[in-house]
Structures are given as C-alpha cells and as structure tokens.
Design a protein that fits this description.
Length: 229
C-alpha cells in the first residue's frame, strides 16, 4: 500500500501571521493553485488506479483533497472526513501572533518540544497521538495492499502521524520539520509486519514559485536529519 500524506494548501488563516489550529478557513487563490500543482504531480502515478481518500473535517483540508482528486480524474471518489485528522486544538494559543505566544507562554515550543506539548485549554501531544492511532486502526490497518491512500491533514497532526506510522520514539517528532503547504510525504507499507518506510518526506519541489514566503526560515528548524535518526 502506498500512503500519500499531504498538508493542506494555503488558507486564509495562513495569511494572518497568527497561530491557527481548529478555526475553519477556506483556501486562498494561491492555495487552490497549490492544490492543482500537487494534483498534477500525482496524476501520472494515480490516474485510473484504486484510491482511498481521507481528510480532516476542516474546509482547508477538504478543499485541497477535492482539487487533487479532480486533477487525477477521480472527482467522484468518496471522501472520508475524519475528526481524527483535524489539527491539534491549541486552546489559548489560538489567534495569538507567534511573538505573543513567546511572551505569554515562553515554556511552549511547537517546534523542538512537540512531544512534551500540552496546549493550555487545548490538546496534548498524547491526545493527538491517540487520534492518529485510532485513524490507523480504523482505516489503514486492513487496507488492501494494492490501493493507494491519500490523506490530507494539518501541520502538527501530520508530524505526529508520520512519526507514529514509522514506529519512531516520541522524541524523534521534535526533529521533524514543519511540512510545507501541499508538501508530499510518501510511505510504503511493507510485508511482513505491515511496517512503513519513507519514499519521500516533506517534498515540496512541485511548488516552485508557489512556495510559502520565508518557509526556509520558520519551517526548517530541525537540528538533526530525521531520515538519519
């Protein structure tokens, strides 16, 4: 089984310079273009092949997936929206600027201490990990090996889901960079034991001029190479 993990495209929430988790936003025009770009990239691999499609119940993830399916000629495919794939509820952090977060909650590090995170008034790392585990058990465990699965979700949730699928220690998630919008992480499930291996991790080479401004400065924070850990 091939598993394509994709972060949603740019939404209006991404343009506000604030921390956004569970607030619902539609895609921007740039986000729609990003969705088309990743859809076009996947077309050669997935067009005409059996695909299962999953996303969170937030509009930015659903709209991204709809555009991808349209590009690969599977716009009539059933989309399963799972609350297990929603973004981590960041509670009191929601709507703060990143500087406000540093001032009010200096102990919270969404980058290098994600495995220790307990958002004030929101979810913890363990909460999201259990949601991801539930998604794996309910939707991936018994999936036909010949199918390809597209999952569109969110920045924190995808970091945790990727780490869990690879059966890595919780601390390893702290070296997993933020995934760029519509970045592609491809995993292959292998027999025996239904273990996964990485084919591509956070691959956003398709974006080119549609890349998020400044992503290299805020997104690529890891001090160690996740693939080499």
């Amino acid at each position: 089984m091939k598993l394509y993990l994709i972060r949603h495209a740019e939404s209006h929430g991404n343009t506000k310079g604030k921390i956004i988790s569970t607030t619902d936003f539609d895609l921007t025009e740039k986000g729609i273009a990003q969705s088309l770009r990743i859809g076009q990239r996947l077309c050669a691999e997935l067009e005409g092949k059996p695909v299962s499609a999953y996303c969170s119940c937030l509009a930015r993830a659903r709209q991204t997936l709809q555009e991808i399916l349209r590009c690969i000629g599977q716009q009539d495919a059933v989309i399963t929206q799972s609350p297990c794939l929603k973004e981590m509820d960041l509670g009191a952090l929601e709507g703060l600027s990143w500087e406000e977060r540093r001032q009010k909650y200096p102990e919270i590090d969404l980058d290098e201490k994600l495995s220790l995170l307990k958002a004030p008034g929101g979810e913890s790392y363990e909460d999201v990990k259990e949601r991801c585990r539930s998604f794996m058990e309910n939707h991936l465990k018994d999936m036909d090996d010949e199918r390809s699965v597209i999952v569109v979700s969110h920045g924190i949730t995808l970091r945790i889901l990727t780490n869990l699928l690879l059966n890595r220690p919780d601390s390893d998630v702290n070296d997993l960079n933020w995934m760029e919008t519509t970045a592609l992480t491809e995993l292959v499930r292998e027999k025996p034991g239904h273990t996964y291996r990485i084919v591509r991790l956070n691959d956003y080479s398709h974006l080119k001029e549609l890349k998020t401004d400044g992503y290299e400065n805020w997104g690529l924070f890891a001090k160690h190479d996740y693939m080499a850990l």
